[in-house]
Amino acid sequence: MAILLEGLCFGEGPRWRDGKLWFSDMHDQRVCTVTTAGEKQVVLKLEDDQPSGLGWLPNGRLLVVSMTKRQLLIFDGTTLEVYADLSHLAPYHCNDMVVDSAGRAYVGNFGFNLHQQAKPRKTNLIRVDPDRSAKVVAEDVFFPNGTVITPDEKTLIVGETFARVLSAFDIDPDGGLSNRRVWAQLPKGAVPDGICLDSGGGIWSASPSSNDCIRQIEGGEVTHRIDTGRGAFACMIGGDNLFVLTSSSSDPAKCRANRDARIEVFPAPYSAAGYP
């Protein structure tokens, strides 16, 4: 393990693009990039909300999940504006997202007030189309979090954190989801937070409850397990590296006080595949 970057509030939504790792420093309200040499750059700051999931439209414009406002924002490098309002569909904070090659964005949400210890409840997965319309495409999902799409764009897999499973859906030609099934059950004590897909057909799950990052193949067999020694909240492959975003806490107040979140780097046994 090597520490690429430290002193963050809380890293989320890592994405590899143009030779850099993009990520949201959620509780510092910033979207940033970092090079493999550890050079950090702030891309944008949300003045009154927290960023989470990131993705790009086919024209290269950046989509950013605005969590508490339950909006999807679009950034062209200069101007930041609302792309779609999801507040009528998402019961609580929006979080991670995956964008396919057609520009369809699949966005998850908490479903309940996690940090105030509200009673957990199931929620939905929302799709935002290129015409900026939004609709629910899956229901009764238990804290939909990290999401990936296979290289052939026929399957979407989402981590249901509180169900401790990776759930797969067939992607219909119109972007709808069907044929829901369990792709893998997480090992005892582990939960899927951020996830990423590799070229060996495996999915890496960052697991904050077990302080590790776990690679499984369909059916649930664990092939690799990396001990991070602290909460692992998101992961992404870029080049030969597996980037894991870790923190001592996910509580907003503690994150802002501690600023001990960091990005750690491990050798990746397989290259990245699919989306994001």
Can you put this structure into words, describing what you see?
With 276 residues, the chain is an all-beta fold. Helix content is 3%, strand content 53%. It is built from one helix and 24 strands. It has a four-stranded antiparallel sheet, with no helix packed on it. The protein has a four-stranded antiparallel sheet with strand order 2-3-4-5, with no helix packed on it. A four-stranded antiparallel sheet has the order 6-7-8-9, with no helix packed on it. A hairpin with a 4-residue loop joins strand 8 (71-75) and strand 9. It is globular and about 40 Å long. The model has no long low-confidence stretch (mean pLDDT 96).
Compact description:
The protein is mostly beta strands.
